[in-house]
Amino acid sequence: MSGDGRKHIASAEGMQALFCETREIFGEPASKANSRRLVRFGSMSRLIKSKKALTYAESFQQQCAPASHPTALDVSVEIHIWYASRRPDLDESLILDLLQGKLYLNDRQVKEKHIYWHQDKECPRCVITVTEMPGQKKDPGVRRGQRRYPAPQEGDRSSN
User: Fold this and answer.
1) How many domains does the chain fold into?
2) Whole-angstrom distance, CA of residue 13 vs CA of residue 152
3) Is 57 in contact with 94 (CB distance < 8 Å)?
4) CATH number (domain holding residue 83)
5) Which of 47, 36, 113 is nearest to 76 (CA)?
6) Is 142 domain-assigned?
């Protein structure tokens, strides 16, 4: 891997540089499935993230440096999660959500996952590696916040 966060692989077209970024985040992630709580606002009820999930999300945002250019292509994600005890379920969904806008634009780009459970009572953490999947066409016209296809302009519609 080069210093620019790209992994170079051999392909039929020669060497191809793929986006590949690794981050280590300290703290124990909350399970997204078990991290909702019901809160009442006057006559309305809402489900919001638990205090543990909100605290982890804040810590994650502070620790996870964004890539200089988050990828817009499909990715493979490998996550090793070290929990402080044997009790928590293996659940990477909160981590995948928190990576949006940092290493990739949307978690729908994750097409392959390798998730590993570990235990470390002294230092719960996760190590995340995000790699572009090989063989995809680069679309340099797509930037964060832009549409893949331009919005139709007035008068572009064909008449029937």
Assistant:
1) 1
2) 35
3) yes
4) 3.30.1330.70
5) 113
6) no
